[in-house]
């Protein structure tokens, strides 16, 4: 296993600032008038969710570094304090842009399309009556207003929950003067309420914020006292989980304890109504041990991401992307026996343009086939109601050997994965947890089948999770194969995951944390040798993130040697392109569109013997050194041609592509006058889906 080394240069874009830049690109989707209106609202909500996670994880980690007295600069030469200051500045701009877009653009345009958000001052008498009844029957029974005094301390505030600080004037029932109270909105309450159609103007859909209803009726929660102000606020907390692999004896119990504690981790951000007076802001900041720099005053609901509920409730298909049916490869369309197909040829699936159903069918066929003896599967994120898990349960109950490696530490999916693990164990499956400190991020499944007195292995390897939901929204590749050598390698990796012994003498696969990093470096150095000897040399990589310093340094060396390098990096990218003499042969773009670009593909020209690799791994320290990852080759010429054509399509995109400049900022590409419009996602949707309307 190779350990990460110190970076050779400081020519890096900061990873956290790069992540904020990605979120700005997501927000720009919400600002694009060519995108259907409710999809723009969805993009706005995604940008808010992304920012929540940024503060929960990245900003929280930086604040911890400061508290631990670790002011040393990182590879980008920024200290934690400098970085937090810049994060504050950029976050203020981003949040202001979010609320300006909502208030000045999206809400008025939604109203033009008869989707209205009724403000308190505009409620009709009939609406007031209905909302008053709703308040008393649906909200009051689950509210616990708490007046503050020395014997009644400030309540515990759940991470990212909706709360109100109330200014009171008067005496309580016991004759004591009261000044402040807290009202917490339970998570069981919907944040967006749809009014009955008969209370809206003709053909309109009307919605009301929960916060508006509570604001309107908050005085009824404090009879006998005057309410002089009511202001919503939300606290974001540190959501990092800490499990010591040297101390923990029971990972599930330790993780369950950490999950409960993380809901009340250290506060890192206060979002509050911009109408809130300074003294109440200071009161809250003081209570949560936050500084003014940690406070963000907003012009609207503090839980902006909850607006995504409207996308689920609105019945307006014309305001969404056109529906489509994912395609099925020709080889599978009229063939019931998937194993017979795979004995003839490999199948490369490209989701979501092509259906995830063949992957589910692969596991389902194995579960039902009496000749199948064993199924082995990794699960990182799969969803609470997973058809894959359903089939694995059926197989285990049918007496097959079912082994499932579940990564309990999959961030934000920990509780769901514990539940899945319990369900599989109850069915009789062997459940193995990922090794603490080395997340099992590989995406692979293997079926062992008896055929003509011998055993044969069938495998699926992917770049994305076994999650039918994300397979409709994320772009990923998946390979189905009956290759003997590939099956032998997958078997060895599964043995490694269960026995914790290293998988040696792999013929096809590269794995992290063992061979992947050094083999990628070797391939980059090989391109340098080709360039130095006067041959064509080229590298194309499509990943979600690029921050590993040694990989970046190797790419800098390759560029300086004349290797032509095209990088398609969706999110974080620390490499600076276009630096004279260092990276002027490197071009970097990000594709942001209807689908989340998630596939990882690596291409090396290799002196004309082109090499294509797909992987679960991004080019990050954690993927190379602290995760179990798998990288698999695509060797058949028709499949290689497909991958190359796809990569060229992404490099030709001038509709959803953003170009990274050396200063760390991105510029959106637009078709030049007379130039053909190229959208990689739309082209693939037209070519691969079963139908697009």
From TrEMBL:
Mg(2+) binds at residues 381, 411. Catalyzes the reversible transfer of the terminal phosphate of ATP to form a long-chain polyphosphate (polyP). The keyword Magnesium applies. This is Polyphosphate kinase. It comes from Woeseia oceani. Residues 126-309 form the Polyphosphate kinase middle domain. It catalyses: [phosphate](n) + ATP = [phosphate](n+1) + ADP. GO terms for cellular component: polyphosphate kinase complex.
């Amino acid at each position: 296993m190779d350990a990460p080394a110190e970076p050779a240069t400081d020519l890096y874009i900061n990873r956290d600032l790069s992540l904020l830049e990605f979120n700005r690109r997501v927000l720009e989707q919400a600002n694009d008038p060519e995108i259907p209106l409710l999809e723009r609202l969805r993009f706005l909500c995604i940008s808010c969710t992304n920012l929540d996670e940024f503060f929960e994880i990245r900003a929280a980690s930086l604040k911890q570094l400061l508290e631990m007295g670790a002011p040393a600069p990182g590879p980008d030469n920024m200290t934690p304090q400098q970085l937090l200051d810049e994060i504050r500045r950029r976050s203020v701009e981003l949040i202001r842009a979010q609320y300006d877009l909502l208030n000045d653009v999206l809400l008025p345009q939604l109203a033009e399309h008869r989707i209205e958000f009724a403000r308190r001052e505009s409620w009709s008498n009939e609406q007031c009556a209905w909302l008053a009844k709703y308040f008393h029957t649906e909200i009051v029974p689950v509210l616990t207003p708490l007046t503050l005094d020395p014997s009644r301390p400030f309540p515990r505030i759940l991470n990212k929950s909706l709360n109100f600080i109330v200014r009171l004037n008067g005496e309580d029932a016991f004759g004591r003067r009261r000044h402040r109270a807290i009202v917490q909105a339970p998570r069981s309450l919907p944040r967006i309420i749809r009014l009955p159609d008969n209370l809206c103007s003709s053909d309109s859909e009307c919605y009301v914020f929960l916060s508006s209803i509570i604001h309107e009726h908050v005085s009824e929660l404090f009879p006998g006292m005057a309410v002089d102000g009511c202001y919503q606020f939300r606290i974001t907390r540190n959501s990092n989980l800490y499990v010591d692999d040297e101390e923990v004896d029971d990972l599930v119990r330790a993780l369950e304890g950490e999950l409960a504690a993380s809901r009340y981790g250290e506060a890192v951000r206060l979002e509050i109504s911009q109408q809130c007076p300074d003294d109440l802001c200071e009161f809250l900041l003081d209570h949560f041990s936050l500084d003014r720099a940690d406070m963000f005053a907003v012009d609207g609901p503090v839980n902006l991401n909850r607006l995504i509920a409207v996308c689920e409730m609105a019945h307006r298909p014309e305001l969404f992307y056109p529906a489509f049916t994912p395609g099925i490869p020709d080889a599978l369309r009229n063939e019931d026996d998937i194993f017979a197909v795979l004995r003839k040829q490999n199948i490369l699936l490209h989701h979501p343009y092509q259906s995830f159903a063949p992957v589910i069918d692969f596991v389902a066929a194995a579960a039902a086939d009496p000749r199948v003896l064993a199924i082995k599967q990794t699960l990182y994120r799969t969803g609470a109601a997973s058809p894959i898990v359903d089939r694995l349960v059926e197989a285990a109950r049918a007496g097959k050997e079912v082994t499932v490696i579940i990564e309990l530490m999959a961030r934000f999916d920990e509780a769901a994965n514990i539940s899945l693990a319990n369900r599989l164990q109850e069915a009789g499956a062997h459940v193995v947890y990922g090794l603490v400190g080395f997340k099992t991020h590989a995406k692979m499944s293997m079926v062992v089948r008896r055929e003509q007195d011998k055993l044969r292995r069938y495998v699926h390897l992917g770049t994305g999770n076994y999650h039918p939901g994300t397979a409709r929204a994320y772009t990923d590749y998946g390979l189905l194969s009956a290759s003997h050598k590939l099956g032998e390698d997958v078997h060895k990796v599964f043995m490694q995951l269960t026995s914790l012994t290293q998988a040696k003498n792999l013929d096809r696969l590269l794995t992290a944390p063992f061979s992947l990093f050094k083999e990628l470096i070797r391939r980059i150095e090989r391109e340098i040798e080709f360039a130095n000897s006067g041959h064509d040399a080229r590298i194309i990589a499509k990943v979600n993130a690029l921050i590993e310093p040694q990989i970046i340094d190797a790419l800098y060396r390759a560029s300086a040697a004349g290797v032509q390098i095209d990088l398609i990096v969706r999110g974080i990218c620390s490499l600076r392109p276009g630096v004279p003499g260092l990276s002027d042969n490197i071009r970097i773009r990000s594709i942001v569109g209807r689908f989340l670009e998630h596939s990882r593909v690596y291409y090396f020209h290799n002196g004309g013997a082109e090499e294509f690799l797909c992987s679960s791994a991004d080019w990050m320290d954690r993927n190379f050194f602290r995760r179990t990852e798998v990288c698999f080759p695509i060797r058949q010429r028709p499949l290689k041609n497909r991958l190359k054509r796809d990569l060229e399509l992404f490099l030709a995109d001038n509709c959803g592509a953003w170009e990274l400049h050396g200063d760390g900022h991105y510029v959106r590409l637009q078709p030049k006058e007379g130039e053909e419009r190229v959208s990689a996602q739309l082209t693939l949707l037209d070519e691969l889906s079963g139908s697009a309307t």
